[in-house]
Amino acid sequence: MESHKTVVFTDYNASEVYLSNIENGRCHIVHCDKIRSPLGACPGIDGTVFVCSGGTGTVVQLTTKGTVLASHDVSMAWPFAVSLSRDGTRLAVSNSVKDEQNKIKLFKVSS
Predict the structure, then answer these.
(1) H helices present in the chain, as ranges
(2) Residue ranges making up the domain that contains 13
(3) Which of 9, 55, 80, 102 yields a CA-CA distance of 20 to 30 A from 35?
(4) Distance CA 80, CA 73 (A)
(5) Which helix (H) or strand (E) element contains residue 21?
(6) Cβ 103 vs Cβ 94: under 8 Å
(7) Are 50 and 79 in contact (CB under 8 A)?
(8) What's the pLDDT tens digit per position in 43-79?
(9) Per-residue pLDDT at 1
């Protein structure tokens, strides 16, 4: 996240998201019921972060300080990767499920 100088890491086994500010060295650790087995993450254009929560079948929206803003049901098992369009109006989410049909869904982002 260049504009916010934040690096995002997810820990699948610990069910945690780490938001590390590379300018001041502060790291916010997010551990909550809305995030279980986190996988892919991507920056929003408004200083937020989208994280795939594989264990809940949702995409969770966080601030760069770790506050949970929303949890979005994406109607798919094990969302794996998330990406936001350049203009911030579309969110693509894909999943990874063994022995099943994997999906890619496109969502409209509203402010």
Answers:
(1) none
(2) 2-108
(3) 102
(4) 13
(5) strand 16-21
(6) yes
(7) no
(8) 988 889 999 999 999 999 999 999 999 999 999 999 9
(9) 46
3 state SS of 3: helix
Sheet bearing 79-84, strands edge to edge: 79-84, 90-95, 104-108
Q: Which two tokens stand for residue 54?
A: 């594989």
Question: For the chain, what is the mean pLDDT?
Answer: 92
Q: Report the alpha-carbon distance of residue 111 to residue 87 in Å, rounded.
A: 12
User: Cβ(72)–Cβ(108) under 8 Å?
Assistant: no
CA-to-CA distance for 11 and 2, rounded, in angstroms?
22
State the total domains in the chain: 1
* pTM over the 0.70 mark: yes
Enter the tokens of residue 56. 């809940």
Q: What is the DSSP string of 34-62?
A: T-SSEEEEEE-TTSEEEEEETTTTEEEEE
Tell me the CATH number at 33.
2.120.10.30
